[in-house]
Amino acid sequence: MYKRVIPNGEIQKLIITEETAKIRPYAVVAVLRNIKFTKDRYESFIELQEKLHQNICRKRALVAIGTHDLDTLSGPFTYTAKKPSDIKFKPLNKTKEYTACELMNIYKTDNHLKHYLHIIENKPLYPVIYDSNGVVLSMPPVINGHHSKITVNTRNIFIECTGTDFTKAKIVLDIIVTTFSEYCENQFTVEAAEVVFPNGKLHTFPELAYRKEMVRADLINKKVGIRETPENLAKLLTRMCLKSEVIGDGNQIEIEIPPTRADIIHACDIIEDAAIAYGYNNIQMTLPKTYTIANQFPLNKLTELLRHDMAAAGFTEALTFALCSQEDIADKLGLDISATKAVLISNPKTAEFQVARTTLLPGLLKTIAANRKMPLPLKLFEISDIVIKDSSRDVGARNYRHLCAVYYNKNPGFEIIHGLLDRIMQLLDVPPGEKKGGYVIRASEGPAFFPGRCAEIFARGQSIGKLGVLHPDVITKFELTMPCSCVEINIEPFL
Questions:
Q1: CB–CB of 396/468 below 8 Å?
Q2: Is residue 210 helix, strand or coil?
Q3: Domain edge (last residue) among 188, 205, 222
Q4: 360 and 488 both lie in a single domain
Q5: Which of 190, 263, 451, 479 is paired with 228 by a 20 to 30 Å CA distance?
Q6: At 478, which CATH number?
């Protein structure tokens, strides 16, 4: 049981002035009396402060800890804020006095302290703590004063935590005093100290608050998936430093939460501790009560089947980026960007990633351009999603699963692409002709295609895509030199 004791003599006091309000408004204090340090304990004490600074203190932005040799100081202490030029003291491990402005310049090159300067650097006033003789204890969150430096031989420690988050400051103080009160002459006792806030209110710290929570044993069993008696669960929780006992109807467990466990906020945290004490590996694996059997998403299943057969037809699969530049899907294909219904990225990092692709063709043409040294013919395909604006959807856009194939050789090879389309339709069980949900191709035009060499594909009564020979301008814009034919269809209607 951790105890807060009021000293027989004068209680240490920290007075906060109103100047601190805009920088670091909160401070909490405590005293560890008659502590015995060894080399290991001292190093551990420093290390604990560092660890707390990094995690709960968020690199000192929320809380900064200062520990001082109380025998070198005399209270009451004052926590105030002053202009940097008005603060002058000898900082930790330095031999002479510096003003706060000079210290900021010195520490800009210090690998350890330079990360904390930005917290107060541009503020008109810097926080500072003085004792009754005007000795500077610290300039939080940057550096402590050398005068009150603690050593292995220090017997009485004054601890102050200043910050912008009052709750976290109290938690940090509780953690430090509970961890090291073990080494005090009166073990597990902490001497109280007072803080006077600018509004005149007086608070005594550390709070070392114990609180009680009630959790039903059947709830723990149900959530963890075990069958333990309430007595056993109370024992498990006690092992986790949460003193527990069964009360009431024999199903209620009363848990005492010590000040060392600030992480216990809700009943689920207690249940998690019970599971850890029981041992995750000891929980029996059981089949869930709900009867569900997983199934592959139909669209992905169709995609997988098509990919295998495209490869069997002699085409190589390419995987390209879902984002591309505006030129790729508009200018290079002879379209206007507004006609593409493309989804624009609001803050693109590079010119290559400005929009979500509306067609798979540019990605494949860029892949061919990057592999021009490979022996001809180049036969590539991709089955992936494209994104189109759609105001009827809750997110304002929707995906379509497209299949695109490209043939690149000394001759256009339109018959190869046409043959591939027939093979795809055969695999999808769509017969040629308009009858019985079949497919037909009809002459069409498109800015990306050679005039008279473009056809629109209709299947089951709707247009699903185009095939044809690409326009020489398109080929040139993608830095290619040979003719190229392609097909691109939407495969979703075939599900």
A1: no
A2: coil
A3: 205
A4: yes
A5: 263
A6: 3.30.930.10
Work out the angle at residue 81's Cα, subtended by the Cα atoms of residues 75 and 84, and round it to the nearest 5 degrees: 115
Write out the two tokens for 133: 């003789």
Tokens of 115: 């990360």
Which domain CATH number covers 278? 3.30.56.10
Residue 249 shares a structural domain with residue 375:
no
CB-based contacts of 46: which residues, under 8 Å, 6+ apart? none
Q: Given CA atoms 448, 452, 454, 460 in this order, what sign does their dihedral have?
A: positive
Distance of alpha carbon 40 from alpha carbon 38, whole angstroms: 5
pLDDT band of residue 340 (cuts 50, 70, 90) is: confident
DSSP reduced 3-state for 471: coil
Tokens of 36: 């015995």
Parallel/antiparallel/unpaired status of strands 193-196 and 202-205 = antiparallel
3-state class (DSSP) for residue 57: coil
- Which pTM value belongs to this model? 0.64
pLDDT digits (tens, 9 = 90+) for 224-234: 999 999 999 99
Q: Is residue 293 part of a domain?
A: no
d(CA 171, CA 261): 9
- Which of 186, 205, 224 lies at the terminal end of a domain, its last residue? 205
State which residues form the domain around 93: 3-205
Which tokens belong to 94?
């330095």
What DSSP assignment string belongs to 349-377? SSTTSSEE-S-SHHHHHHHHHHTTTSPSP
- One-letter amino acid of 321: F
Asked if 160 contacts 129 with a C-beta cutoff of 8 angstroms, the reply is yes
Cα–Cα distances in angstroms (integers) from residue 7 to residues 32, 66, 194, 245, in the given order: 11, 21, 11, 34
> Are 465 and 347 in a shared domain?
yes
CB 169 within 8 A of CB 161: yes
Together in a domain, 121 and 262: no
pLDDT of residue 434: 78
| Domain presence at residue 466 | yes
Among residues 149, 141, 171, 178, the alpha carbon closest in space to that of 60 is found at: 141
DSSP line for 21-39: GGT--EEEEEEE-SB---H
In a domain, 348, yes or no: yes
pLDDT score of 435 more than 90: no
Q: Which residues contact 430 (CB under 8 A, 6 or more apart)?
A: 437, 438, 439, 459, 460, 494
Q: Is 80 exceeded by the pLDDT of residue 436?
A: no
Q: C-alpha angle with apex 111: 107 to 117, nearest 5 degrees? A: 45
- Check if the beta carbon of residue 454 is closer than 8 Å to that of residue 433: no
**Number of structural domains the chain divides into:** 3
Residues present in the chain in total: 495
| Sequence-ordered list of residues with C-beta below 8 angstroms from that of 67, at least 6 positions apart, any chain | 45, 49, 144, 150, 157, 158, 159, 176
Mind giving me the DSSP string for 283-332?
Answer: SPP---SS-------HHHHHHHHHHHHHHHTTPEE----SEE-HHHHTGG
User: Could you check whether the bond before residue 84 is cis, i.e. omega within 30 degrees of 0?
Assistant: no
Mean pLDDT of all residues in 337-351: 87
